[in-house]
Amino acid sequence: xxxxxxxxxxxxxxxxxxxxxxxxxxxxxxxxxxxxxxxxxxxxxxxxxxxxxxxxxxxxxxxxxxxxxxxxxxxxxxxxxxxxxxxxxxxxxxxxxxxxxxxxxxxxxxxxxxxxxxxxxxxxxxxxxxxxxxxxxxxxxxxxxxxxxxxx
Amino acid sequence: xxxxxxxxxxxxxxxxxxxxxxxxxxxxxxxxxxxxxxxxxxxxxxxxxxxxxxxxxxxxxxxxxxxxxxxxxxxxxxxxxxxxxxxxxxxxxxxxxxxxxxxxxxxxxxxxxxxxxxxxxxxxxxxxxxxxxxxxxxxxxxxxxxxxxxxx
Amino acid sequence: xxxxxxxxxxxxxxxxxxxxxxxxxxxxxxxxxxxxxxxxxxxxxxxxxxxxxxxxxxxxxxxxxxxxxxxxxxxxxxxxxxxxxxxxxxxxxxxxxxxxxxxxxxxxxxxxxxxxxxxxxxxxxxxxxxxxxxxxxxxxxxxxxxxxxxxx
Lengths: 152, 152, 152
Fold this sequence. Notes:
Number of strands of chain A: 8
Oligomer: homotrimer
Shape of chain A: elongated
Radius of gyration of chain A: 20 Å
Number of domains of chain A: 1
C-alpha cells in the first residue's frame, strides 16, 4: 500500500480477525481389536493450542480399519459396543478380503470422520459423552489421526 | 492506523467480506424411543438468521443416545427405520450398561454429528430428503442441538 | 476509503488472505444397486481447481438412497461390503415404504455426508483408503454430489 506502517497494521488486523484452518495430528497406540480409545482430552488440548474460541474440528482416521464416534465411556458400554459389532458384522463370514474383512466393513459403516463444534474452546459434548477412536483391525496399531481445526 | 475514518472502514470491510462462525441452538422435545424429528425447517431458519449465503452447518447432539441423519420423511419409512434398528441392534441382548444399552450402541453407529452444505441460504438436500434427529433413548427427552454455522 | 488505490489494495489483500467457501458439483452415473464408485480423484481435482492449500471438503449426496464413506477399493471388499449390507439390512423384510425400503434404511445408517481434511491440496486419506459413493437404490442412477470446499 506504499505506507509501511499502514501495511503492517493492515496485515495485523487481518491476522486478528480472520478465520483460519490449523492442522494438528494425534498419535495413539491401540491395544488390539475393538479397543475404544478416549481422545476427548487430547482433542481439546489441541484446540487449546490454537487461539480459536469458536469453530469446528474434523477428526479423521487415515486408514480403512479404524473409526470415530462418540460414546459414554464406561466399562459396561466398552463391552456392549464390541459385542454388538460382532453381532451386526460378524467375524465369521465368507469374506473375500481375507482375515480382516469384517474390520473394513465395520469401519465403512461407522465412518472414518467426525466433525464436532467447539465453543469457548470446549467441545460441545454432553456430560456423559466422549469422543472416541475405535480400533477395528485385528491387532494393535499405531494411528496418526488428523485434526483439521477451523475457527476464529 | 491513526486515521479513525480509515480504521472504521477497514473493520467494516472485514466484517462484510470475511467468513465467520456463528453458533445457534435448536431445542426440541422427543416423544419417546425412535421418534424421528424433522429439523430441516428449523435448521434452515437458523441459517436464514445469519447473513451467510454459502457455507456448511454442523448439527451436533450433546448426549450419547441421540443421532442425526437424513431420511425421506414419510409414514412408511418412519415405521421401517425403527423396525430395522430393532433388527440390527436389538433391545433384548445381555447388555452390561443396563436398560438402554441398545440406545447407546445405535447412537454410536449412526453418529451424533452431520455436516450439510448450504448454498444461497438453502440446505443442499434432495427433494425427498429431510434432515432428522433420531431419539434413541427409551423415553421422551428434551434436546438442545448445537448448530455450528460457518459461511460467508 | 476515499483513495481508490488504497481500496483496491485492501480488497486484493483480503482476497489473498481470507478463508473462503467454494461450491463444486460432481456428476456420476452408478451402474446399479450397491455399486461402489471411487470418487477420490475427482474430489482431489475439484480441490486442485481452487487456490486452497489447506481445508476441509464436505461431500454430500442430495437424495436419500445413496451414501458416502471410505473403503479400501479392491475387488474382495467390493463384494464383501454389499454382501454384509444385505446381511445387516436385508432386502426381504416387510417394508412399508415399498420396493426400496432397504435402500433408504441403509443410506440413513451409513450417512449422506462425509467431511475430509485436505493438506497441501491432498486429501489426508491413508494409502489403501479411497473416498467412495455407494449407490443403494435398486437401479442405476445419475447423481450430482455437492462438494463444499472451505479452505485458505
